[in-house]
Amino acid sequence: MSLARRLIAAGFNDLEKGERFLAAPELAGLDEDALFAGLALAANPDTALQSLVRLIEKHPELRKLAADPERSEPLYRVLGASEALGEFLIRHPEHLDAFEVTASPEPQPADAAALRTRLLQAVRADPRAARPVAALAGQDGYAALRTAYRRGLVELAVKDLCAADPLDAMPAVGAELADLAGAAIEAALAVSRAEAAEQFSAAEVADVGLAVIGMGKCGARELNYISDVDVIYVIDPGGLDDARANTIGTALASGISRAIMSTAREPGLWEVDANLRPEGKSGPLVRTLASHESYYARWAESWEFQALLKARTIAGDAALGARYEAAVGPLIWSSAGREGFVESVRSMRRRVTEHIPADEEQRQLKLGRGGLRDVEFTVQLLQLVHGRSDESLRCRDTTSAIAALSAGGYIGRADAKEFDRDYRYLRLLEHRIQLFQLRRTHLMPVKEASLRSLAKAVLGPFSTERPHPDALLSAWRKTKRSVRELHERIFYRPLLNTAAALSSEEARLTPEAAQGRLAALGYLDPPGAMRHIEALTAGVSRRAALQRQLLPILLGWLADGVDPDAGLLAFRRVSEALGTTHWYLGLLRDSTAAAERLCHVLSNSRLISDLLEVSPESVAWLGSDKDLVPVGFEAQWLEITSKMSRHADPESAMRLIRLIRRREILRVAIADSAGLLDQDQVGAALADTDRAAMLGALRVAENVVSAREPLKTRVLVVAMGRQGGREIGYGSDADVIYVHRGLPGVPEDEAQAQAARIVGKLSSLLTQPLKPAILAERVLAVDADLRPEGKNGPMVRSLDSYAEYYRRWSLIWEAQALLRARPMAGDDELAADFMALIDPIRYPESVSDQDVREVRRVKARMEAERLPRGADPARHLKLGRGGLSDVEWLAQLLQLRHAGRHPELRTTSTVEALEAAAELELLDGGEVVLLLRAWRLASRIRSANVIWTGRASDLLPSSRRDLEAVARWCGYGHGNAAALEEDYLRLSRRARAVFERVFYGQ
Fold first, then answer.
1. Phi-psi category of 356—alpha, beta or left, where left has phi over 0 and alpha has psi -120 to 50?
2. Residue range 365-378, pLDDT digits in tens
């Protein structure tokens, strides 16, 4: 076989470099077969060969070991798995004797006490002393400590890489890495004591006790090859006062970090991170035990107790550390009952995910979806929820915790086995990636050569294959999917098994444990939630079986909402209303989008939940964006005329018209919730729905009147205000005015009387209760207060009467109101004539200074008189500073002053008017963008108030829960209610500044 073929068979990536190193004089005379047999064991034979040549150059005696197939396995495996350890041995060839061991398929872990002794002896400290002090300090002490640590790392790597099953060995490897780190910190403390004695008296230094509490993976004894070691420092002042003890303790803690990671001739090991201490970076580096207890009792946040789950004394004063652990233990296991605990833990998990750089998201082993954090988060939350009452769950490391949760019946045996395997596999990948260069990383490599080496590295020593990188990536992706699915199954499946009282080997919880888990998920009424689950899953029907299959995922999606309790109740009602309908559960089972949308709207919207409960067939829309496209006015009117032709009875006809309107409001709301519509499109779609209902009601009213007498007049309904601008929300009334024109030959008084009867009937048809009632209907309330003379004027006027009124009596505020007049329903010819009548009034050639002053006076008076008593002007969406009224009145003043000369301003839309003003340079373009952002956000919040509560409100909510719900509807992420509040207050404040400058000329 040619040399090139042998290199390929051995797994080399760079054949040219491989041939060059094989020809190195250091390898002259070595048995080539023995050399290739050794290199075939290496995950990365290129690196193994290069390191071997350099080591033999430094230590020629290594040739004997390299040529001995019976003894060389540890050498080749370590050199092929870790370039960094090869570099260490090149610097310190005296430690090559670490390979003079027999590879064991079942290696025995090193004793933690023995590691401590070895590291302390390396810095010439007495391991038997209560508070050891090193004889080596400064650069010599640092080098000795770090060299001894890395020697231990080489010995551990030999055991790890030669273990028959790397997955089985993984927990023991993590434990030994943590013990080795603890020993290094113990030796660093001994060095620090020696150095502190140069600054303080030796007696004072000896008097201060310091316990180093390991947190995170080190505390749990599941450390990586290279990782920050998270610590908390606790001091015992001894006979010193607290201030002096704190000063010395801080010096000791700082000295530990210096010994571990400062610049020296032997490189630093890893970062000692004390940021998990009380108050984080802002807090003192060391505290007394009493100070820790005081902080945790009064100030600690929920996530800090989750972090303390891993706390363990790893170095220093063991008795002091034990007292610390005893003090925080009860706080850890009672933390799940704290208010806001679950949301705090979830928010922390979300923050971790959100901070992943976009280019790393798909490569993350630790933080991404289906990564190590998902496993750890799931296990820790279950421990905290159930560990309050079950002490068997109070273990630190993840694999033991999974086993305890399974043994206690909190996780099904099969699920626990799969979860444990997935966790071990992800940790194994992490270990092998980090071991190569001893660099802190949690990213899968991208280069094919690195992936090929990694694919070999994760296999046990009895495997001779070299898998393709695609096989590795496929296995990793499969594991990520499994972790995500198991998260849902492990959390929710036992709840269902308990609720349905199934005879199963799967996990079943006691009622108390089930309610505890529901509370941890954010359900405020766990007993009520359990009753709903029981009702949905009881029995042996196909429906109950499908609900048991679906609910584990749906419960999680509901829990992501602001009100999961209401969401679950609404889901039960919808499910019961649809009964055995064949398509419903199938849709939820087969369409992830439909199921997630349903859970989202049920747990975030009272309005949509109420509408879906009475229109459950609308759930069918959730599976298709096409079904959620708003139905236009023409299509709605076609449907209404078709139904009216078959239902002559006025009440039946109005029932159908109002049901169509209710249906279309629901369609728009669901499309809105799914992000398919922006705020402008929502307003236009709702306006079309109101227009169709208004036109239908007008036709029914005309039919009612014409049944008793011949029609004598034509009636027109003109939309005003936001209805005229097609800018309404879910809680908007219909501001209108009524116009009529008598038929030829009909006396004016008769036409006027009939018109009054028609509009009176129209209003009652839209608002009066029907029998049976239309449930959850958003009644279309009609407001005609903008008519001439307001409430003192007649409800309806003839076209001629309007012409006379506007000619003689019209005030500037009425011209302003007409800016948004748009025909809504009625006679088309009359509509055209009315618009021709009012255009010169609302778009005058010029506006007097007196009229401008009057507009400003009315606006100021409205702000002073119409704002509800006690309302915060900064939070009132309509009348408050920078709110809807400010933006709309500014646009309308510009229209009054300039639309006569600039047709571009002749629109009923606030958005179009402001955009036209920017094009005409009547307003700065940046200011228009600002005004529209503020206006759209206020409109969005106003609609969100209705969506969330089912009731209209013009206030930015003050309640944190209500604000969170509104923020979610406005597109903000979980826990970002404060961001919405800040954005609105900032935008409205800036919009008000623009308004005051332009509107009032300030």
1. beta
2. 888 888 998 899 88
CA dihedral 69, 73, 75, 79 (to 10 degrees): 120
Tokens standing for residue 973: 């992420």
Strand pairing class (734-742; 713-719): antiparallel
Cα gap 129→113, rounded to integer Å: 14
> What mean pLDDT, rounded, does the chain reach?
92
Q: What is the DSSP letter of 631?
A: P
Alpha carbon 174 to chain centroid, angstroms? 30
Report the pLDDT value the prediction gives residue 498, as an integer from 0 to 100.
Answer: 62
Distance of CA 533 to the CA centre of its chain: 26
Cα-based distances in Å from 998 to 232, 775, 806, 917, 992: 58, 47, 28, 12, 10
Measure the CA–CA gap between 172 and 303, rounded to whole angstroms.
Answer: 28
- C-alpha 548/C-alpha 93 separation (Å) is 63
In this predicted structure, what is the pLDDT of residue 866?
85
Alpha-carbon torsion (83, 88, 92, 94), positive or negative: negative
How buried is residue 777: exposed, middle or buried, by Cβ count under 10 Å (0-12/13-18/19+)? middle
Where helices occur in 560-615 by DSSP H, the ranges are 564-578, 582-590, 592-604, 606-614
Strand partners, 713: 742
CA distances, 733 to each of 24, 550, 796 (Å): 89, 40, 18
d(CA 336, CA 316): 31
As averages over each run of 10 residues, the pLDDT of the chain (1002 residues) reads: 86 91 91 92 95 94 91 95 96 94 89 97 96 95 97 97 95 97 98 95 95 97 95 95 95 97 94 95 95 92 88 97 95 79 69 73 83 89 84 94 89 89 96 95 91 93 91 94 82 62 54 82 90 86 79 85 95 88 81 88 96 93 93 97 90 95 97 95 97 97 94 97 95 93 95 96 94 92 90 93 92 93 96 97 94 93 85 92 96 96 96 96 96 97 96 94 95 91 96 95 76
Q: Say what the pLDDT of residue 335 is.
A: 81
Question: Cβ distance 517 to 386 under 8 Å?
Answer: yes
Alpha carbon distance 235, 875 (integer Å): 50
Spatial separation of the C-alpha atoms in residues 243 and 265, rounded to whole Å:
35
The C-alpha atoms of residue 226 and residue 223 are separated, in whole angstroms, by: 8
- Tokens at 986, concatenated: 């900032």
Tell me the chain's radius of gyration from C-alpha atoms: 38
CA–CA distance from 945 to each of 680, 760, 972, 985 (Å)?
17, 31, 15, 17
In 3D space, the residue among 118, 251, 262, 117 whose CA is nearest the CA of residue 189 turns out to be 251
pLDDT of residue 648: 82
Output phi, psi for 657, to 5 deg.
-65, -45
**138-162 vs 83-91: helix axis angle to the nearest 10?**
130
Q: How far is residue 905's CA from residue 149's CA, in Å, rounded to a whole number?
A: 78
87-94: long-range contacts at Cβ-Cβ below 8 A with a sequence spacing of 24 or more?
A: 87/51, 88/150, 88/153, 88/154, 89/51, 89/55, 89/154, 90/51, 90/54, 90/55, 90/58, 91/266, 92/147, 92/150, 92/151, 93/55, 93/58, 93/59, 93/62
Beta bridge partners, 798, equal 740
pLDDT for residue 504? 42
Closest CA to 433 of 447, 402, 454, 462: 454
What does the alpha-carbon distance between residue 673 and residue 730 come to, in Å, rounded to a whole number?
13
Alpha-carbon span 984 to 979, nearest angstrom: 9
